[in-house]
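User: I've been trying to design a sequence by hand for this structure and keep getting stuck. Would you show me what you'd pick, starting by listing the structure so we're on the same page?

Assistant: Good idea, let's start from the same input. This is the structure you sent:
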């Protein structure tokens, strides 16, 4: 957003805000809705991860690309990776992400670089991604997920009854499944979930690519 936009906001609207949580979220929503669509969708995607999640640049860029979030205009010299990295850079400059450094080799002065979302930004991402992104914490949780979901995080679930696996077939727009802290889940369970979903996907291109990240 431009300096002119915020100056107008300060002059005309700031007086209506009392600094409460609801008002803070209103301001954050204004910031979000002024993002270009390409940045909005990348930001929403990150709601499938928990608060305080440490995003590594390489991993996040690859997930955005694999999930089909990075669009390219014909004739552009930039490749998908360049576009994704620029999306992350812009979201960071606009404070949707915070860049953090952790010194892991003091003598060599080497630092580990990662990105985090402030809790309020994560709340915002969860709100604006309703119906598109979801997190489930038990097998039955899949029944509560909206049919329109595109990106799904499965947290700490190590087994799925056959009827629950079958229920995944209703997610015809699903592009991403992330298994988080599912340390004891069997490979055949993961394959069964992906197979059921892939079979009923609307897009032929999606049926040919992996959903699991």
């Amino acid at each position: 957003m431009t300096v002119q936009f915020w100056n107008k906001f300060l002059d005309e609207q700031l007086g209506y805000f009392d600094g409460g949580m609801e008002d803070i979220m209103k301001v954050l929503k204004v910031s979000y809705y002024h993002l270009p669509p390409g940045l909005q969708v990348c930001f929403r995607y990150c709601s499938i991860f928990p608060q305080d999640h440490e995003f590594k640049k390489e991993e996040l860029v690859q997930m955005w690309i694999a999930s089909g979030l990075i669009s390219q205009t014909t004739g552009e010299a930039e490749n998908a990776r360049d576009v994704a990295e620029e999306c992350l850079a812009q979201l960071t400059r606009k404070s949707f992400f915070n860049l953090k450094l952790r010194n892991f080799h003091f003598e060599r002065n080497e630092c580990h670089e990662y990105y985090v979302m402030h809790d309020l930004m994560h709340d915002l991402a969860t709100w604006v991604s309703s119906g598109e992104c979801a997190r489930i914490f038990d097998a039955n949780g899949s029944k509560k997920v909206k049919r329109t979901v595109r990106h799904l995080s499965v947290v700490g679930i190590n087994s799925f009854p056959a009827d629950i696996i079958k229920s995944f077939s209703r997610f015809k727009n699903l592009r991403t499944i992330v298994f988080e802290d599912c340390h004891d889940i069997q490979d055949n369970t993961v394959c069964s979930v992906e197979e059921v979903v892939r079979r009923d996907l609307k897009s032929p291109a999606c049926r040919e690519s992996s959903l699991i990240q």
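That's my pick for every position. To get oriented when you compare it with your attempt: Strands lie at 98-105, 110-116, 133-136, 151-155, 176-180. Confidence is low (pLDDT under 50) at residues 205-209.
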